[in-house]
Specification:
The complex is a heterodimer of chains A (about 325) and B (about 525). Chain A is mainly α. Chain A has helices at about 5-40, 45-50, 55-65, 75-85, 100-135, 140-155, 155-170, 185-220, 225-230, 235-270, 280-285, 290-320, 320-325. In chain B, strand 3 (about 70-75) and strand 4 (about 80) form a beta hairpin. The chains are: A mainly alpha (about 325), B alpha+beta (about 525). The interface between A and B is large, with 49 and 56 residues.
């Protein structure tokens, strides 16, 4: 049955979403201009990359003209923003396809990787953090925190290569690399991503476990936890319902950060596991000075991060009624 | 990171040369070929384009070479042999070249190739290819009948066939319907033994056997890039794996039967398995210190010669790692323009700081800074230039090493921009094809301007009717370029590939990846 202030809560929620969304517009605009400016500061010539190292200067100039790179900086920026306003993100110089279609082709790979990685991270990270907090200052706490420290400290590149040698070459459990789209079946899709997602989640599990432990320690020291115990609630209910739920704010924040980090961290993982995702594409685009592709991808990723933050804000309001009433 | 890994992205990294197997490739010859099966080839990265007229990188040419064919090509000895032509003849004044075309050759779309397609291809090449300058002297193309094609030049060109057989920016024959297509935007239709299947960028590309392929029956077997090609495989799947460890893992667990660029320090992972082997492809590139002759100190020939005199090639070979062999020349041994064992320059690997100091004194050098630019992408380049820096310091030079990324480094070298005096890179097909292929490189990378000896030698080269006369001009060119310290040759280099022994039919002519005549046992 609806409560007396639920209508007010919904209005507040809509207002918060609307304000946050409007706040995101200048952020995205600034990202787009920054993306253009930063790339234009980079030395190096995409025309030379395309024409080939041994092409004559005249041939390189011809390619430059073909690509519109002979125009002035302001002219190029103006054209880019004008096209952007019409939803046209431009075309990749190297891939010979539109930026949107290039991103759309690769986004499912990166999102699949990030989602699978987060699905490993959250239960394991929260569980480890909660256990460490509950058994604080015991050997269990020390053991869990040591594992978490290892997780955030071991270079992903190194552990990924070890993972390939162990799980693919020695044990033969998973393929060494490559991506199977979900249209080929859930089994092949999961097999192609399980190891990369697991490696990606190692850092995140360590991070989330430490955040959860810290949040839980704060909450477990509160008066209402003592009260809950005093009135005879089981430890399971005390920790699982009262403590963990109150620690959720921090965990939700951490999860938002982790999702963004998972997309960012995919650069290395996609490289090692030969996954045709956004991260690998951006690295290649930067090396080739494929300006439109880097700019467009940065903008799309910037928008994605803004949306993740927006969702985190919304989840705050759902998890903590005090936010709605502020 | 090893030499081989470091070289994987070099745009000109063509695999041209002799291949030496470290495993029993030779045993394949006793086997009976089997038809069928799909070969999985794990490559470093995927092609940017399959438009042959724009293609200069190994990863592009590894696909293009199996889909398209040109009028002429390189044979086993790297000399010219016909491919889609049956005969190519030059007039006595070298102003008219006539080609007779093979009859009944089909494109992948089912149409027969005629002289109209050849003419349209040459015209498109002239319009869009970065290599089009080599056809500047063309006055017109003629098609007297469907199987005859004639190139009429405004001035003699004795090496036109060498130009059009180039494996870099290859002049492949496309259907006439592609004539007006913009650069990098063609329909991928060739006459080659394979046709394009699926292409998922950054992931994989497939090619399948072209069952209507019309083989050149003028010889019993394959010959370089030409000859009689037989396709046993149903298809080939290229998988793009940037990391060497992952490629080796794919070979070890059977996901791939052939992999490119195995770093020498990881080769044992392949050779330790009885069912796998390593193949050494050598030489593929020649490595050089590039000296910017238009920049400050290094505009002075004495300073350039001092730099050359100070360099110790053996130290560089040892420090940079990989497969390197000393060769003072700008052509690979065994190619038509290789001139013998005696160095064409007094400076090659004399490792003499004392001589360098004498030259510096003559030049009036007063400790001014020499800027070395290198990059963070290719370890062998960085190692090479760090060693060179120490060698120059030992000879009394003040050196400033600046590290940038490869794209910037390459742009600076090619365009002469930036503050660099010295840098390094490696060149490939020039060492096979000879002086005409070297010409644009010499006038750009070291930025040679107003060198009358070089200009005259090139003029003589292009007018020389015999190979012997052209070789004489080439000697003059090399003496000027290496003796004048514009380029400092380091070594010829190679690379390693890995394969499963069940892949049979590889031969000694490596070249760019050739997938015909291979089978899976």
């Amino acid at each position: 049955m609806p409560g007396p202030d639920d209508g007010v809560g919904e209005v507040a929620l809509i207002r918060i979403v609307a304000v946050k969304f409007l706040q995101a517009v200048p952020v995205i605009l600034i990202i787009s201009i920054l993306a253009f400016l930063l790339l234009s500061l980079l030395p190096g010539d995409p025309a030379l990359i395309i024409a080939g190292e041994q092409a004559s200067p005249a041939a390189v100039e011809q390619v430059r003209r073909q690509l519109g790179l002979d125009r002035s900086f302001l002219e190029q920026l103006g054209i880019w923003l004008f096209n952007l306003a019409q939803g046209n993100f431009g075309s990749s110089l190297v891939l010979n396809q539109s930026v949107l279609s290039a991103v759309a082709e690769r986004l499912p790979v990166t999102l699949s990787l990030a989602a699978l990685s987060i699905s490993f991270t959250i239960p394991v990270g929260v569980l480890l953090g909660s256990v460490a907090a509950y058994f604080r200052r015991t050997w269990i706490d020390s053991a869990v925190m040591t594992v978490a420290l290892l997780g955030v400290s071991i270079p992903a590149f190194w552990i990924a290569i070890l993972g390939v040698i162990l799980f693919s070459v020695q044990l033969g459990w998973v393929p060494s690399s490559g991506f199977a789209p979900i249209s080929q079946g859930v089994g092949p899709w999961f097999a192609s991503l399980a190891l990369p997602a697991l490696i990606l989640s190692l850092f995140q599990i360590g991070f989330l476990a430490r955040m959860t432990r810290s949040a839980m320690l704060d909450v477990l020291g509160q008066d209402y936890i003592r009260t809950a115990r005093a009135k005879g609630l089981s430890e399971w209910r005390t920790v699982g319902k009262h403590a963990l739920r109150n620690a959720l704010i921090l965990i939700i924040t951490a999860t938002g950060i982790l999702l963004s980090a998972a997309i960012g961290g995919s650069v290395i993982i996609e490289q090692v596991f030969a996954l045709p995702g956004i991260g690998r594409m951006v690295v290649q685009a930067i090396l080739a000075r494929d300006y439109p592709l880097v700019q467009g991808t940065m903008l799309i990723l910037g928008f994605t991060f803004v949306m993740i933050n927006l969702i985190v804000d919304i989840l705050y309001t759902l998890a903590d009624p005090r936010v709605r009433h502020d | 990171m090893s030499w081989n890994v470091a070289r994987r992205g070099i745009a000109v990294a063509l695999a041209l040369g002799l291949a030496v197997s470290l495993g029993p490739v030779g045993s394949a010859r006793a086997q009976t070929p089997k038809k069928g099966g799909t070969l999985v080839y794990a490559s470093v990265s995927g092609p940017g384009t399959l438009d042959p007229y724009m293609a200069s990188s190994a990863v592009e040419l590894e696909v293009i070479n199996n889909i398209f064919e040109g009028l002429v090509t390189l044979d086993n000895a790297n000399a010219t042999r016909p491919m889609l032509a049956t005969k190519a003849t030059a007039s006595t004044d070298f102003k008219t070249y006539s080609f007779e075309l093979r009859k009944g050759v089909k494109f992948h779309n089912g149409q027969e190739m005629t002289s109209a397609d050849v003419k349209a291809s040459f015209e498109r090449y002239k319009r869009i290819s970065p290599n089009a300058k080599n056809l500047d002297a063309v006055d017109r193309f003629e098609t007297p009948d469907p199987y005859s094609f004639v190139i009429v030049l405004k001035e003699p060109n004795v090496v036109l066939l060498d130009v059009i057989k180039s494996p870099i920016y290859p002049l492949m024959i496309l259907p006439a319907s592609q004539k007006d297509k913009p650069a990098r935007d063609i329909e991928v239709i060739g006459t080659g033994p394979f046709k394009l299947g699926e292409w998922v960028k950054d992931s994989h590309l497939t090619i399948t056997r072209f069952d209507d392929y019309t083989a050149d029956t003028s010889v019993p077997g394959r010959d370089g890039y030409g000859g009689r090609k037989t396709v046993y495989l149903d298809g080939v799947r290229y998988r793009f794996m940037p990391e060497a460890t992952t490629r080796i893992a794919a070979l070890q667990n059977g996901e791939a039967q052939m992999i490119s660029s195995v770093p020498s320090e990881l080769a044992a992972r392949v050779t330790s398995r009885k069912d796998l082997a390593i193949r050494e492809v050598f030489p593929t590139l020649g490595s050089y210190v590039i000296v910017n002759s238009q920049k400050g100190l290094t505009a002075n020939v004495l300073i350039r010669q001092a730099i050359a005199a100070a360099i110790n090639v053996d130290d560089i070979i040892e420090g940079a790692g990989g497969i390197n062999k000393r060769n003072p020349w700008m052509s690979f041994p065994g190619t038509p323009y290789f001139l013998g064992d005696t160095a064409p320059t007094p400076w090659y690997d004399i490792k003499s700081p004392a001589r360098a100091k004498e030259l510096l004194k003559q030049a009036g050098y007063k400790g001014e800074k020499i800027v070395i630019e290198t990059n963070s992408n290719y370890q062998w380049m960085r190692s090479t230039m760090l060693i060179v820096a120490e060698q120059l310091k030992e000879a009394g030079m003040t050196v400033d090493v600046q590290v940038t990324d490869w794209t910037t480094n390459a742009s600076h070298m090619q365009q002469g921009t930036g503050d660099w005096n010295l840098s390094t890179t490696a060149f490939g097909p020039d060492h096979i094809l000879g002086p005409q292929q070297w010409r644009p490189v010499l006038y750009t990378f070291p930025h040679i301007v107003g060198n009358e000896i070089l200009d005259k030698a090139y003029a003589e080269f292009f007018a020389a009717p015999t190979l012997e006369a052209r070789r004489a001009s080439w000697l003059t060119i090399q003496k000027e370029v290496l003796g004048g310290g514009y380029l400092v040759k380091i070594a010829d280099t190679g690379r390693l590939t890995g394969y499963a022994k069940k892949l049979q039919g590889q031969n000694d002519y490596a070249g760019i990846l050739q997938l015909w005549d291979l089978w899976l046992d």
